[in-house]
Design a protein that fits this description.
Order of helices and strands: HHEEHEEEEEEEEEEEEEEEHH
Largest sheet: 8 strands, mixed
Helix content: 25-40%
Shape: elongated
Radius of gyration: 32 Å
Number of helices: 5
């Protein structure tokens, strides 16, 4: 019995350590087939700054392309904040594009994808060319710990917006927005040195919300009008049978004061 309890306690400790991200015991290393996997969409290698990130249709993944000459580095440290410790970012479909246009996969010997503690490191062979990878994202919100400072462009799926203060949020400030001919919103920062967070919504969701508010206003207005009409009807009936509430109140206040108060 003591031996079984010891084994159970050890298993529980290992499980907690793995769930907290302590060590790469369980699927912390990215297998080669994931590194070489085709991205959900072909990478858009045209960047106007340090990084271009676009959220894939459906919102559950993102694709990032970094211009290494703008980033001025070959090493990218990727991680997420956990409750008790950091967790390495799970990246896949890693590609390095040489300045001459030649592309190699993430498992190529010149590209190094490894763990350093609780951080994922992706290292390119040269501080030139471009580096791209795919990672997980949450639907209707995107968070990313920027590995390098510089200018960033985030492209949302078609029909998404951030303008409503109730449903949208963009951090950090100092950004600009534009919409392309495919109805995709572009959020651009000239300089970023902190994590990016964007909460967005579908245009149709906002229209549905506004329609619901309009219906509630109409229903509330109709209810108020109904009760006012009922009050007027009751008042008219009281007047018809000779019950004048206002005159009764006047008579009450016109009564003589108590003895000794004159």
């Amino acid at each position: 019995m003591p031996g079984r309890r010891t084994l159970a306690a050890a298993a529980l400790v290992c499980l907690l350590a793995a769930s907290a991200g302590c060590g790469g015991l369980f699927a912390s290393e990215v297998p080669d087939d994931s590194l070489d996997k085709e991205p959900p969409q072909p990478y858009d290698w045209e960047t106007n700054g340090t990084a271009k990130i676009y959220v894939v249709d459906g919102g559950d993944r993102y694709q990032a392309v970094f211009d290494l000459s703008e980033a001025n580095t070959t090493k990218f440290v990727l991680y997420e904040r956990g409750l008790s410790t950091d967790r390495p970012e799970w990246v896949r479909s890693v590609r390095y594009r040489y300045p001459n246009g030649t592309e190699v996969n993430g498992s190529h010997p010149t590209v190094d994808v490894r763990l350093e503690g609780s951080r994922r490191v992706v290292e390119a062979p040269r501080a030139e060319g471009k580096l791209a990878f795919t990672g997980p994202s949450d639907i209707k919100q995107f968070g990313f710990r920027t590995p390098v400072d510089g200018s960033y462009e985030l492209v949302l799926p078609p029909g998404r917006r951030v303008g409503s203060f109730l449903f949208g949020r963009v951090s950090p400030n100092g950004y600009s927005t534009s919409v392309d001919d495919q109805n995709r919103l572009h959020v651009t920062w000239e300089e970023v040195n902190s994590p990016i967070y964007v909460r967005y919504y579908l245009l149709r969701d906002l229209l549905i919300f506004r329609g619901g508010v309009a219906v509630l206003v109409v229903v509330a207005g109709a209810g108020v009008a109904y009760y006012l009409r009922k009050i007027r009807t009751l008042k008219r009936r009281r007047e018809e049978i000779g019950l004048d509430v206002e005159s009764d109140e006047d008579d009450e206040f016109d009564r003589d004061p108590p003895p000794g108060m004159k």
